[in-house]
Amino acid sequence: MPNPRPFKLFGPSHLAVLGATAAGAAVLVWVVRRHGGERRARAVARGLAAVLAAEEVAAIALAARSDPARLREHLPFQLCDWALVCAAVALVTRRERPSELAYYWGLAGTIQALLTPDLATDFPDPAFFSFLGLHGTVVAAILFLTFGLGLRPRPGSIRRAWLWSQLFAATAAGANLVLGTNYGYLRAKPAHASLLDYLGPWPWYILSLEALAAALFAALYAPFAWLDRRGRLADGPGAPAAPPTRYPPAP
Fold first, then answer.
1. Is 144 among the domain residues?
2. Residue 156 is part of which domain span?
3. How many other CB atoms are found less than 10 A from the CB of residue 55?
4. Rg (CA), the chain
5. 2 pLDDT band (50/70/90 cuts)?
6. What residues have CB less than 8 Å from 101, skipping those under 6 apart?
7. What CA–CA distance (Å, rounded) separates 174 from 125?
8. Cα separation of 157 and 102, whole Å?
9. Is 242 a domain residue?
10. Is residue 31 in a domain?
């Protein structure tokens, strides 16, 4: 069996995944907003949640099969895993709290992993599909939640997301201490090029990342803050009607 090709950042296969992620999200949003209704929106949301769960299980199974000794490095202790869980819960329940966490973590963190993946092998290696497929689906699900189902961050969400991020960091640090892993890249930077390369040496890049996270969260909330000030969202006088794809939380 030939050796897998090394991953090429922004090579043809990488660009294809980025394009497929954007196109997939756009199609899902278009389907429920233009040709939807509550039943179709619920079916699409729950189907997408099932895909997320299947991809997470498949990623762990692939890691266990390829190198059982390193399975501890592929447990769900990365921020992208937490974003995936929040997105799946929000898709099933339509609750704002998990949706806003997925929004901040996914668009500030997971999208970075999609743009600069910590990946050694290129198409058609299974690791390529597992890593980029999972991260791409998380980003598409978050865009669907926001623009398809109308779930969006609310006032106070920046503080909530930042505090939950500290819980993630504490959990990842505990896992690293027990397992000797590098979840959250708290012990070392990724082996491949990433945003962390510009944030200073260890451990200072962790403090830089905390500040950057707060700034990114603020930037991600800014469009909604502007719209709120103009009275164009929520349920106030003169606000547009809620999109027909909104449906009540599942019992």
1. yes
2. 12-229
3. 19
4. 19
5. low
6. 82, 83, 86, 160, 161, 164
7. 32
8. 11
9. no
10. yes
Could you tell me if residue 246 is inside a domain? no
Q: How many domains does the chain have?
A: 1
Give the amino acid at 209. L
Q: What number is the average pLDDT over the span 123-138?
A: 93
End-to-end CA distance of the chain: 50
- Residue 155 one-letter amino acid: P
Q: Which residue has the higher pLDDT, 4 or 199?
A: 199
Q: How much helix, strand and coil, in percent to the nearest 5, is found in the chain?
A: 70, 0, 30
Cα(201)–Cα(199) distance, integer angstroms: 7
pTM of this prediction?
Answer: 0.87
Residues 6 or more apart whose Cβ sits within 8 Å of residue 190: 118, 196
Tokens 């959250």 locate to 184
- pLDDT(135) > 70: yes
Q: Name the nearest CA neighbour of 167 among 177, 178, 155, 175.
A: 175
Confirm if 187 and 67 have CB atoms less than 8 A apart: no
* Pair 41, 245: CB distance under 8 Å: yes
Q: Between the CA of residue 169 and those of 29, 53, 84, 144, 173, what are the distances in Å?
A: 32, 23, 16, 27, 6
